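Troubleshooting log. The previous structure file for this entry was overwritten by mistake, so regenerating from the original sequence record. Sequence copied from the archived sheet and checked twice against the printout by T.R.
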Amino acid sequence: QVQLVESGGGSVEAGGSLRLSCAHSGLSVGTGCIGWFRQAPGKEREGIARMNGLGRMFYEDVVKGRFTISKDDDKSTLFLQMDNLLVKDTAMYYCAVDFGTCESKAVTSQRWTWRGQGTQVTVS
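Regenerated output below.
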């Protein structure tokens, strides 16, 4: 059973930073693809960043240069460092896992196999 628990969300002023964490269990090191997506009210899911089992990172253009994905395998935790936050970054942020590749249609269309309960990020 895969479990994903996000934390670190909150309210911040534009230009500020937040660091999201995702504690995961039930995954083997090197599992297919792990990453983050977000969803604002009334909008579709939007991919942010993801990482494959070899550590290759993928970023969507909308966050490239501002967000950094990383992980600590010893602590079974995925991170998302978010800098220079913009008002349009306001959304619920989800940690997600898929056993396929990071280039799969499922992942790129944000139809992940597993996701956490989300953590709210509000930028004003």
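The chain has a mean pLDDT of 95. Archived copy saved in two places this time.
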